[in-house]
Amino acid sequence: MIVRGSHERGLLVSRETLLRVLHNYRYHVDVIPEDDGGFTLWLKELNIGGTGRTLEEARGDLLASVRSYVRNYFQQFDFYRHLPDMARREPYVLQGP
What integer pLDDT is reported at residue 24 of this predicted model? Predict the structure, then answer.
């Protein structure tokens, strides 16, 4: 147990242990064909989408969006952890792409 200040506590665990704890948190991606022949991929758990002319391009765009979201989440963690809808996303953010 790591104690910071008088009220903040943390636990140092290995990556393997963290992934085991997060195992039940699965991503669900909706594939939405667009009228122009392209695709939108929507990641429900993080409320993020990606688009592209092909599924591969849409996947790349979605991964870039997720990586950006995760980076921003950790940079703004002190703010986000107090927002209920953002706190619910934390297990998915910790898994990372």
Answer: 82
3-state SS, residue 9: strand
Tokens of 2: 């790591």
- Exposure string for 59-68, b = 16+ CB within 10 A, e = fewer: bebbeebbee
15, 17, 24, 83 from 63: Cα distances, Å: 21, 24, 21, 24
SS3 12: coil
Q: Which fold has domain 26-95?
A: Double Stranded RNA Binding Domain (3.30.160)
Domain edges within the chain? 26-95
How many CB atoms are closer than 10 A to CB 50? 20
Q: Give the helix/strand (H/E) hosting 75.
A: helix 55-75
pTM over 0.85: no
Which amino acid, one-letter code, is at 46?
Answer: L
For the chain, 97 residues long, the average pLDDT of each consecutive 10-residue run is 72 81 85 97 94 97 92 83 77 70
